[in-house]
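Supplementary Note 2. Why include the ligand at all?

Several targets in our set were suspected to adopt different conformations when bound, so apo predictions alone were not considered sufficient. For every target with a known small-molecule partner we therefore ran a joint prediction. The input for flavin-adenine dinucleotide is given below.
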Amino acid sequence: MDKNYDVIIVGGGPAGLYAAYKIEKSYKVILFEKDDVIGEPIICAEGISNNTLKQFFKESDLPFIRNRFSKLKVKYKDLEANVDIPDMGLIIDRSKFEKYIADKVKKENNFEIKTGSFVVDAKVEDEQVKVILENGEEYFGKILIIADGVESYLPNKVGINSVCNLIDMYSCYQQVIHDPKVKDEEIIFDFTPSVAPGGYLWVFPRGNNEANFGLGITSSLDCEKPYKLLNEYRKKNYPDAKILREFPGCVSVNQLSRMYTDRVMVIGDSARAADPITGGGIDNALRTANFAAIVANSVLKGKDFSAKRMSQYQELVEKDNSYSIKKQNQLREMILKMSEEELDQFFTSAINLFNGKKILSTDFYSTIYSFKSSFKAIGMVINFMGSLMKDKYLLKIIMRLMWK
Ligand SMILES: Cc1cc2nc3c(=O)[nH]c(=O)nc-3n(C[C@H](O)[C@H](O)[C@H](O)COP(=O)(O)OP(=O)(O)OC[C@H]3O[C@@H](n4cnc5c(N)ncnc54)[C@H](O)[C@@H]3O)c2cc1C
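The joint prediction is reproduced in C-alpha cell form.
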C-alpha cells in the first residue's frame, strides 16, 4: 500500500476537517483522527456567529443548526445589560457539524479519513514529513498540517514550541440542562468574579428549554473548582434543572508565536487560536484552516517547502483584519491585571454602554481595531466613539488597545 501523500492532516475536529475540505481535489490527502467516530465525543458549548457560518459555508440549508438566539444578557454582580442581537448567534450540533464536513471531505474531495488512528510522533526530514501511528505504521507527506486540538503535543515534536502556561488555560465544566427557565432566544454571560474567577459562566440555549450551561475560569491547581462553582450556581439559579450530560474541558489561548516550520503548519486550538476573551475557537479553527489550505494549495505547485515559504500562512492569519486574536489577548491581559475595583468600573461602564442597545455586527472589535487603516466603517466607529466620550474610563481602555 502506498503511504506517500501530498498532505497529511492530524486531527479530525473543525480545524483539521475544514483544512481537508479546502485542499484542492487533485492532491492526495489523508487525515488521521484518534477517536473512533468523527464528531464524538463533543466537549463544547456549540455557540457560533451567523456571520462565521455564512463566511465558511455557502449552502443555505445547513443541517447542523440547533437554535438561533436574538438576545444577549451580560451579568456582572448585581448589574445586567440586555442587548438585542438579531440574526447574530447560533447554537449548532457539533457532532452533526463535524460529520457534515467529513462527508464533504470524503465524497466531494475523495480524501481518506482514518479514524481510530492515534499519531504518536512526527518528524520533518529532508524531502518529506513522516508521521508514526500508535500501531507503528509510518506515513509520508510533502506537507503536514497539525490540528490536534487543545491537547496538542505534535508541534513540539517538529520543533515548534507550543507549551502552554497555566495562565493561558481556561479550566471548564459544562452541563447540558433542561429547565423551563431557560429562554430559547437568550444567551447569557455572567462575568461576576465570585461566579467564574478570571473567566465567565455561560447559558447557551439549544432550543426546547435545553441549554449548554457551563463555566470557564483561568486555570488554577484546584481542578475541582469549575465543577464546584457551576453546581453552586445551578442550585441557586436553576434548582429544578435536569442534567442531561456533563463533562470537564479546557481551552488554551495566547496564539503560538510561530505557527509553522519547514513543511508544517499548525492550526486551530493546536495553534492556541481560540478567542482569548470568549474562549470560542470554532471560528478561528475554520479561519486558520482556510489559510493553511490556501498556502498548501499554492506551495504544492512548486518545490519550496521551506519555513520561509510556510510563513505565508502566519502572515495571512495575522493580516486578517476581520478578527484580531492579538488584540483580544491584549484586552485579556489588561483585564487579568485589574483589581476588583477596576473590574467593577470596567464592567459598570461596559454594561451602561450596551444596555438596551441593538448590535448588528459580530465584527464589532475588528471594526474598532481596523479604525487606523479602514474608512469603510467610519460612521459606526464615530457613533460608538460618541457614546464612549461620555465614559472616559472605557474610552481610555479602547485607546490603549488601539494604539498598542
Ligand atoms: C467546555 C468548552 C466549551 C466550548 N464552547 C465553545 C463555543 O461555544 N464556541 C466555540 O467557538 N468554541 C467553544 N469551545 C472551543 C472549541 O471547542 C475549540 O476551539 C474547537 O473545538 C477547536 O477545534 P480544533 O479542530 O482546533 O480542535 P478539536 O476540536 O479539539 O479537534 C482536535 C481533534 O484532534 C484529535 N487528535 C488529538 N490528538 C491527536 C493525535 N495525536 N492523533 C490523531 N488525532 C488526534 C482529537 O481527538 C480531536 O478530534 C469550547 C471549549 C470547551 C472546552
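Residues 10-16, 32-35, 43-48, 118-119, 147-151, 172, 174, 214, 249-251, 268-269, 274, 279-283, 285 surround flavin-adenine dinucleotide (CB under 6 Å). The longest helix spans residues 282-299. Comparable summaries for the other entries are listed in the accompanying table.
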